[in-house]
User: What shape does this take?
Amino acid sequence: MNVQIKHTQAERALIDAGETAGRGPALDWLKERGLPTRRVEAWHYTDLRSRMPDFPPPADKPEAAKASLDRVPRLFDATRLPFINGHYASELTDPLPPCAMVADGVPPVDADELRHDDAIGAINAALAGGGLSLAIKENANIETPIGIVCVGDEPASAVTRHRVTIGAGARVTLVERHVSGDGVALHANMVTDLNVAEGAEANWVIVQEHGDQATHLAQLNITLAARAKLTIMLLNRGGSLVRQEISVDSTGPLSELKIRGVNLVGDESHVDVTTVLAHHARDTVSTEIFRNVVQGSGSGVFQGQINVAQLAQKTDAKMACNSLLLSDAAEFSAKPELEIFADDVQCGHGATVTDIDEDHLFYLRARGIGEKEARDLLVKAFVESIFEELENEAIADALNDRIEDWLDENG
Assistant: This one.
């Protein structure tokens, strides 16, 4: 017997907004299940129902989009595709190279295929009001990064969906950046479907730096074809409630995936990174390394799952999660998982949680370095090496600069 749940204020707001948008299957998902609690395994460490007390209505199309974008300085040279409060500001888009094509509009989604625990996908399928499709032509070599810049400056919801296709043999770097100011109760929800075709090589960089009252729910769904290579660089350094999901299907042999992430969790913030890497073909490689720094009463989560199908022989898959807690009230939960059905693989995982080593701190202080500077140096050494693998030095330097700024603000 199905028991109808009593909806919270946030769930009622989501359902009302979904009825206005007229998205049937996704709306039914929200009505039947509501927001996930700790009883849903994938959300055990992030009780979304209690952490999301309300859901604001969508923002109107901004009248001063240029002013909003101008308040966000560029971190490095890139072709920008701007979204202001969830609306695509096509008039402010930088000129794209001829081998890249963009189409405005929300890509279609089959909401009937939503998983029972896919709250982010359900909200997005029900409410997405903005988005684009970006296609990189076969064998294109694009040197200047292409960036989707999402700016929020209103206490509203900004729900967007994107589709990115990278043609066979192409080379490109793509960036998504999320920015909002302190005191702005923005609710951002973004789902991106990324298809990397045979032999393509791509970097995908995520920089999330929302203000202290923002909620950020994001999902990156990836398909890797044969011999495709993808490197994901993720920096979380803001937001009140953050959940970033990364789901990868390695469908072709000899594909390679790298995920490198840094989570800087401030006082009273909650940051959750959940990854699912599925190997479906032989001779595929994946490595993921996360470094986390938590201070004050902040809390963080890493859930990493590696699935190796029976046909995926010779898979090499590894993940590591290392966390640094800078206060007694700081928390970080790590949940690595391996599900292996092949018998000729190399798979492993590891997780550590620690404080700053007192011997290392004493070593620096004994050489005349003040305590705060010494602690900052040790934290920087812990996290900044993560982005060294990026071939684009300008992006790597910009990410490390954002880390240093966070340490200065939260030291």
About this structure: The chain has a mean pLDDT of 94. Residues 357-411 form one domain. Helices lie at 9-21, 24-33, 48-51, 65-70, 119-127, 358-365, 371-383, 393-410.
